[in-house]
Amino acid sequence: MTLFRPCIDLHEGKVKQIVGSSLESKSLLSNFVSEQPSTWFSKRYKEDGLLGGHLIMLGPGNEEAAKQALAVYPLGLQIGGGIHPQNAEDWLMAGASHVIVTSWLFPGAYLDWKRLEALSHQITKVRLVVDLSCRSFQGSWFVATHRWSQLSEEEITPDLMYKIADYCDEILIHAADVEGKCEGMDEELISLLARVTPCPITYAGGAKSLDDLYRVKEMSGNNIDLTIGSALDIFGGSGVRYEDCVAFNRKQVSS
Asked: For residue 61, what is the DSSP state?
């Protein structure tokens, strides 16, 4: 069923909401910088019974804040950002339900299937999320790696997603071109994803109202989850009330 997925984005140890397209530049654009620590958000998600939230470390200096958030809500959050075989198990031991991996799987222009297979075997498929965050190019979408600054040659296709689903529990896709802008979702990308649901899929990017949850539910046949970030009132936004997202999830579960 379609559910709201929460998030905690960490940059320099603080909870922020950023404009995705600025990650590749020297001038990071932030929509919001929280006065609250990461634990404030993880505690709230725990109290409201929200599972599968994405805890993303944007660069160095975020490890302590991430560990603190996981300690408050063990097995309630997935963690991503600089994950590789040498630290994946440590993050799972720290309380993450899953690790989220992108860049390590792309040592070059294409996904390294041997790396994916090895990591899946190391931590088991059920603890792995593959992030296929992407950018649009000439009418298609290609995976963007290394904080979305490098466009790979790996196109988002049904075949790619079905193959990846053999090695992971979930697929996460940020639409990097619209991430953090609150100007609307990439509905063409969502339509593509809706035709391919080999495993649980979460879409993130551009959501600006509660109606977007219902829109994703309709477009995906109730099969794709949605992350809402910058538009949420708890992140300084005015488009979506956090309490309404919690109520949406409760309604889906009870219906």
From this structure: S
Token digits for 62?
Answer: 């975020």
**What's the rounded Cα separation, in Å, for the pair 78 and 40?**
16
**pTM of the full structure:** 0.94
DSSP for 93-110?
HTT-SEEEESGGG-SSSS
Which residue, among 102, 113, 193, 185, has the nearest Cα to 147 in the 3D structure? Answer: 102
Q: At 229, which amino acid appears?
A: G
- For residue 246, CA distances in Å to 8, 49, 143, 253 come to 16, 8, 30, 11
Given a cut of 90, is residue 241 above it in pLDDT? Answer: yes
Strand bridging mode 14-18 / 7-11: antiparallel
Q: What is the DSSP letter of 73?
A: S
A 10 A CB-CB count for 182 gives 22
Coil vs helix vs strand at 147: coil
- Is the pLDDT at 170 greater than 70, yes or no? yes
CA atoms of 130 and 134, how far apart (whole Å): 12
Dihedral of CA 31/130/118/70: which sign?
positive
- pLDDT category at 21 given cuts 50, 70, 90 is very low
Average pLDDT over residues 171-192: 90
How confident is the model over 21-25, as a mean pLDDT? 49
* Tokens 């600054």 sit on residue: 149
Q: Which single residue is written with the structure tokens 């100007």?
A: 183
